[in-house]
Amino acid sequence: MTYKVLVSDPLADEGIEILRGFCEVDINTGLSEDELIKIIGDYDGLLVRSGTEVTANVIEAAAKLKFIGRAGAGVDNIDTDAATQRGIIVANAPAGNTLAACEHTLAMMASLARKIPQATASVKRGEWKRSAFMGVELNEKTLGIVGFGRIGQELARRAIALDMKVVAYDPYINEERAKELGVEVMTLDQLFPVADFITVHTPLIKETKHLINKKSIAVMKDGVRIINCARGGIINESDLYDAIVAGKVAGAALDVYENEPPKDSKIITLDEVITTPHLGASTVEAQLNVAVSVAKQCIEVLKGGSAKFVVNAPMISPDQQDRIDPYVKLVRNMGSLLIQLIEGRIESVEIEYAGKAAEFGSGSKYITRMALKGILDPILQTPVNIVNAELAAKERGIRVSETITDKSLGFTNLVTISIETDKMSETVSGNVSSPEKLRIVKIGEYMTDMTPGGDVVISRHHDVPGVIGQFATIIGKYGVNIAGMQVGRNQPGEEAVMVLNVDSEVPQEAMDQILKIEGVYTAKYAHI
């Protein structure tokens, strides 16, 4: 049988040649959605970059399609849900540009330390001002890495080879894993004051938006140098501008910006700032690597095998899918809730099945991985899915275990997720009474009856009169409506858990006031 593959965006020749050794390849770039729909029915595989929008309509027309490959990391231009429903495997190449991004960061750091771009411009103007470009050495300086994933770890190895001391912040990396690399794990409060260079390598999420701002810069070393080759928006550019002008920050190296291109950003007008136009993955080798990766994965799938970096769930039998779907929804919400309740670096995750939930056999592995997706998705830059969930946990040094028990607490279909961190442990249990009736029935040791989803405030407090009233007063003052309330306790007058369902996000200022209420031990706002 001869397979046909369509390449609809520019792809490195090496990837094309690998494909041609196995199947027919057509290169047809710049297609509109309608044009793609007209021809996609003839192809078994489709390889794209970011230019092609693989919509649900395209997938619906793809009668023979078995594989969609993204030559790069992001898959925002591919409707992965539609592909999953059609049994089409979607894969990417997330590791292909790791070294490119790492080396670009290293180059930016060295250029920043020695003022190379500024000196180059000066010489080209006919000047010879050696004293104006006095630099600093990297040797024995402290590099603070914020976000210790693939890129951060590769950067650490190279910085250590330059005799730099490396410290890292990542709330979800195992401390032992960092020690193996010779890196000391710190909190941000510990890292900012000791680092001579600070580089960020985190996704842009709610928690990392403007992570580097006026307040955090204030506690940094005088003369610190800051690098961002990750995502625009992690640094508040206005605050960084002010800090450089004031002399607090010696300089910055930016490859990404809050708005791209940064035409109206005053940060790029400063001589102390070196800039590049989002070049982190722009190397010949990176483009070759991602092309080769997706080409090889395409061939493996067409041969009947599996892809290495699948980003959507494999199909399972329809009857098992119907049984498992409610549990998948429940555990993803439970995982999302847990990651917002815990503090510290995750060391282990345990998923326990009881009652009829213990009878799924291999299906429990599917549910476990979707629980990990709920836990890891909010904190990792690369998408977490049914295939890579356990690998993503392993890379972070997180131990994952599954257990089956007959202790179902009187529930028919009970799933419990327990997370252990270096600071605490937390447990959430959920039950499926019917496909439509999903409940979180226990938080820690306290019984609840909570419908997963929406906005909630969860507290542990001393069960005495007046505490709940003060909660309501504070939340009401900020215009947040309480939709429902539950209290779980073991004995009156002792510790209790309260779940408040609210209609909108609770501001951090309100949560800070709640934590000051006498008798309140912990209080967390969560959106699930």
Global geometry: globular
Count of helical regions: 17
Instruction: Strand order, main sheet: write it out.
Output: 8-7-6-9-10-11-12
Q: State the helicity in percent bands.
A: 25-40%
Low-confidence stretches: none
The pLDDT mean sits at 89
Distance between the termini: 47 Å
Instruction: Give the strand tally.
Output: 22
Strand content: 15-25%
Largest sheet: 7 strands, parallel
How large is the radius of gyration? 26 Å
What structural category arises from helix and sheet content? alpha/beta
Précis, in short:
This protein has 528 residues and is an alpha/beta fold. Helix content is 33%, strand content 24%.
Notes on the protein architecture:
With 528 residues, this protein is an alpha/beta fold. 33% of the residues lie in helices and 24% in strands. The chain is built from 17 helices and 22 strands. A 7-stranded parallel β-sheet has the order 8-7-6-9-10-11-12, sandwiched between helices. A hairpin with a 2-residue loop joins strand 17 (437-443) and strand 18 (446-450). Helix 5 crosses helix 7 (150-161) and helix 13 runs parallel beside helix 14 (363-376). The radius of gyration is 26 Å and the shape is globular. The chain starts with a strand and ends with a strand. The model has no long low-confidence stretch (mean pLDDT 89).
Question: Which terms would index this structure?
Answer:
single chain; 528 residues; alpha/beta; seven-stranded parallel beta sheet; globular
